[in-house]
C-alpha cells in the first residue's frame, strides 16, 4: 500500500470518535469481521489506529478504499447537535407544561441531559432529576434511574430527536457508564477464539507443591491447564466491564411422576428469583474456575452477559 494512502487512512481514522469506530468500520466493509475481532478496542486510540493501518496495508487498500472511508465519516459528521437539542426539548415541553431540560456536550460526541420532571399542575422537582447520556448517530441512551410514568415520553423524544426508528431498550444496568459503553458498543473484547500468549501454559506458575507425587503433579498440571485455557477462551485476556449484579427470574412448571401431589396439580408456574452480586461481578465469575470454586466451563447463562448485553434474564419452560 502506498505511504500516502496509509497516512490518509490514519488521519481519517483519528478523526472518528472511539464510540463510533466499530460502526463506521463495519459500514466501510473493507476489513472482515475476523480482522476486526483481532483488534483490542480498549487500547489507547493511537495503538488501535496503528493496528488498523497495518490491516489495511495487509489487504493492499487503494485510494478509492480510503476515499470511501472518508465519505462514510463525512456522513457521520452531518449530525446536528443543535437540532437534536431543540427537537428533544420541544417534544418534552409540548407533553409536559412544567419540565426543565439542560444539556452538556462532551468530547466523545455525547450529550448529557438533565431532566427535572413536573406535571401539568406541579413545578419540576429539581431534587429528583433524571440524567440521560445520548451518543450521536446511535440508537442507545443511558439513563440514571428507572422511569415509570415518563419512560414512554423520554423514549419518544429520543427517537424523534435522534432520527432513529427506535431507541433500543436493554436489560442491562450498572453504575459504571464506561462499562455499559464497552458492552453496548462492542468495545469489550470477549473473543471466543484461541489467544496468543508469550508464555506457554506449561511455563506458567501453577502453584503446585514440588514435594507432591509426580503423577499427582502431572494430573494437576493437565487439569489447571485445561481450566486456564477454557477461562481464557471464555473471558479473554482483558479486564472485564464492571457490573455489580446479574438477576435471573425463573418460571417453571412442577414436574413429577407422582400423581395427586399438590404441586403437580398447580396450574401456575413456580417462580424463583436468583441474584448474583459482587463489586465486580464479571471478574468474580472469571476467577471461579481457576480458584476451584466452580467447574469449567461455567454455565452460558453466566458467561453470556457481555455478549448478550444484558444482566436481567427471564427463564421459562420451552
TrEMBL record:
<keyword id="KW-0158">Chromosome</keyword>
<dbReference type="GO" id="GO:0007059">
    <property type="term" value="P:chromosome segregation"/>
</dbReference>
<dbReference type="GO" id="GO:0005654">
    <property type="term" value="C:nucleoplasm"/>
</dbReference>
<protein>
    <submittedName>
        <fullName>Centromere protein N</fullName>
    </submittedName>
</protein>
<dbReference type="Pfam" id="PF05238">
    <property type="entry name" value="CENP-N"/>
</dbReference>
<dbReference type="InterPro" id="IPR007902">
    <property type="entry name" value="Chl4/mis15/CENP-N"/>
</dbReference>
<dbReference type="GO" id="GO:0034080">
    <property type="term" value="P:CENP-A containing chromatin assembly"/>
</dbReference>
<comment type="similarity">
    <text>Belongs to the CENP-N/CHL4 family.</text>
</comment>
<keyword id="KW-0539">Nucleus</keyword>
<dbReference type="GO" id="GO:0000775">
    <property type="term" value="C:chromosome, centromeric region"/>
</dbReference>
<dbReference type="InterPro" id="IPR052011">
    <property type="entry name" value="CENP-NAC/CAD_complex"/>
</dbReference>
<keyword id="KW-0137">Centromere</keyword>
Amino acid at each position: 500500500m502506498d505511504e500516502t494512502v496509509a497516512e490518509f487512512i490514519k488521519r481519517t481514522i483519528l478523526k472518528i470518535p472511539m464510540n463510533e469506530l466499530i460502526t463506521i468500520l463495519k459500514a466501510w466493509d473493507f476489513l472482515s469481521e475476523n480482522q476486526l475481532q483481532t483488534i483490542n478496542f480498549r487500547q489507547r486510540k493511537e495503538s488501535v489506529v496503528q493496528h488498523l493501518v497495518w490491516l489495511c496495508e495487509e489487504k493492499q487498500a487503494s485510494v478509492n478504499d480510503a476515499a470511501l472511508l472518508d465519505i462514510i465519516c463525512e456522513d457521520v459528521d452531518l449530525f446536528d447537535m443543535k437540532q437534536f437539542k431543540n427537537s428533544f426539548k420541544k417534544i418534552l415541553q409540548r407533553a409536559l407544561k412544567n419540565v426543565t431540560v439542560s444539556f452538556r456536550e462532551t468530547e466523545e460526541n455525547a450529550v448529557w441531559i438533565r431532566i427535572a420532571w413536573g406535571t401539568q399542575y406541579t413545578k419540576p422537582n429539581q431534587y429528583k432529576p433524571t440524567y440521560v447520556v445520548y451518543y450521536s448517530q446511535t440508537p442507545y441512551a443511558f439513563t440514571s434511574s428507572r422511569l415509570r410514568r415518563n419512560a414512554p415520553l423520554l423514549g419518544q423524544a429520543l427517537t424523534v430527536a435522534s432520527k432513529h426508528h427506535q431507541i433500543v431498550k436493554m436489560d442491562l444496568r450498572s453504575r459504571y457508564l464506561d462499562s455499559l459503553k464497552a458492552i453496548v458498543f462492542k468495545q469489550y473484547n470477549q473473543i471466543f477464539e484461541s489467544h496468543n500468549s508469550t508464555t506457554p501454559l506449561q511455563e506458567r506458575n501453577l502453584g503446585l507443591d514440588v514435594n507432591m507425587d509426580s503423577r499427582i503433579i502431572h494430573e494437576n498440571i493437565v487439569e489447571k491447564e485445561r481450566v486456564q485455557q477454557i477461562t481464557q477462551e471464555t473471558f479473554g485476556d482483558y479486564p472485564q466491564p464492571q457490573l455489580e449484579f446479574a438477576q435471573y427470574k425463573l418460571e417453571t412448571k412442577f414436574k413429577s411422576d407422582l400423581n395427586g401431589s399438590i404441586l403437580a396439580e398447580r396450574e401456575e408456574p413456580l417462580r424463583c428469583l436468583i441474584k448474583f452480586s459482587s463489586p465486580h461481578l464479571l471478574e468474580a465469575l472469571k476467577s471461579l474456575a481457576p480458584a476451584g470454586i466452580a467447574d469449567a466451563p461455567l454455565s452460558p447463562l453466566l458467561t453470556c452477559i457481555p455478549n448478550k448485553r444484558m444482566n436481567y434474564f427471564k427463564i421459562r419452560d420451552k
